[in-house]
Design goal:
The protein is an alpha+beta fold. The chain has one domain (about 15-85). The chain is built from 1 helix and 5 strands. Bound molecules: zinc ion. Zinc ion binds near residues 6 and 32.
Length: about 90
Amino acid sequence: MARQTCPHCGTRLSKWRVPEEATWSEEFFFVCFDDSCPYYREGWEWMMAQFRQSASYRFALNPRTGAPLPLPVWSDAATREMIMEDAEGDEQ
Ligand SMILES: [Zn+2]
C-alpha cells in the first residue's frame, strides 16, 4: 500500500496499531504524528473551549475504508507506543 500523507500538514502517516481494547475492528490505522500539524494543534484549543479538557485529536486514516477519523490523545506522547513503523524510518 502506498504511503499516505496528512491532508492538513503533508506529513507522511505512520502505521499505528489499534489497541485491543479499542472499539475499532481494524488491525491498524495510518496516523499523523506531527506535533505541529494544524489539525492536532487546533484540537487542543477546540477541546478546551468545548469541554474544558486538555486533549486533542490526531488525523487518522482507516486503511480498509479509506475514511479519515479523529484519534483522541491526551498528550504529545500518548499513543506513540503503538506506532508500528515510523513514517520515514529515521525518527528517534
Ligand atoms: Zn498532520
